[in-house]
Design a protein that fits this description.
Elements lengths: L4 H14 L7 H34 L4 H4 L2 H27 L16 H5 L7 H34 L4 H29 L10 H28 L3
Helix pairs in contact: 1-2, 1-8, 2-4, 2-6, 2-7, 4-6, 6-7, 7-8
InterPro entries: GPCR_Rhodpsn (IPR000276), GPCR_Rhodpsn_7TM (IPR017452), Olfact_rcpt (IPR000725)
GO cellular component, one term: plasma membrane
Subcellular location: Cell membrane
């Protein structure tokens, strides 16, 4: 449940490697764009929710069953999915309403929003502004929440007198922290600075965007089960 990307992003991307299909319909592109953005946005919020879970488990272990009850974590997960889906609807709608010029060739593995925006022959300032707002909601806010959660977690762990106790406490958070660094690191490179015009090194930028999206869309979801299953 905590790894929504693997069910949609992986097949969509791998389809471009294992088939010879070179075209995609307008509606299929919109669906692909919606799913990939919604899954990524949802995981961003879920990672923030998981940081709170780790905070309660380490800093208030006796209250954990009460604080993280079903009545608490179900609305938390549902709200993450709802916000991720709503944001994806907004961005997909804004993008697909734009006029597109030229050959309409998407220089990317999938119908990724930033790649599609490069084909638009109209002002995309509204898209850039909305992407900036989204960056705050899905990147900046969760990362700050995770950071402060781990500040309190680290402080609490360092107060544990025994080395064995500190090791067990750190191991409780290690898997989540690893996924946070990998996933958010690649997303910041991809969405941290949306631009309305191509940079001078367009070819290099396009290749970088492809590799980054492949990493957070395929590699990270495939690594998640391995990371979360590691026992330290």
């Amino acid at each position: 449940c905590m790894n929504p990307c693997i069910t949609c992003s992986v097949p969509l991307v791998l389809d471009h490697f294992v088939t010879t299909r070179k075209t995609i319909s307008f509606s299929a592109c919109a669906v692909q764009m919606f799913l990939s953005f919604a899954m990524a946005g949802t995981e961003c919020l879920l990672l923030g929710m998981m940081a709170f879970d780790r905070y309660v488990a380490i800093c208030n272990p006796l209250r954990y069953p009460m604080v993280m009850s079903k009545a608490a974590y179900v609305p938390m997960a549902a709200s993450s999915w709802a916000i991720g889906g709503a944001a994806s609807v907004v961005h997909t709608t804004l993008t697909m309403r734009l006029p597109f010029c030229g050959d309409n060739i998407i220089n990317h593995f999938t119908c990724e929003i930033l790649a599609v925006l490069k084909l638009a022959c109209a002002d995309i300032s509204t898209n850039v502004i909305s992407m900036g707002v989204t960056n705050v909601i899905f990147l900046a806010a969760p990362v700050l929440f995770i950071f402060f959660s781990y500040v309190f977690i680290t402080t609490t762990i360092l107060r544990i007198p025994s080395a064995e106790g500190r090791k067990k406490a750190f191991s409780t958070c290690s898997a989540h922290l690893t996924v946070v660094v990998i996933f958010y690191g690649t997303l910041f490179f991809m969405y941290g600075k949306p631009k309305s015009k191509d940079p001078l090194g367009a070819d290099k930028q396009d290749l970088s965007d492809k590799l980054i999206s492949l990493f957070y869309g395929v590699v990270t979801p495939m690594l998640n089960p391995v990371i979360y299953s590691i026992k330290t």
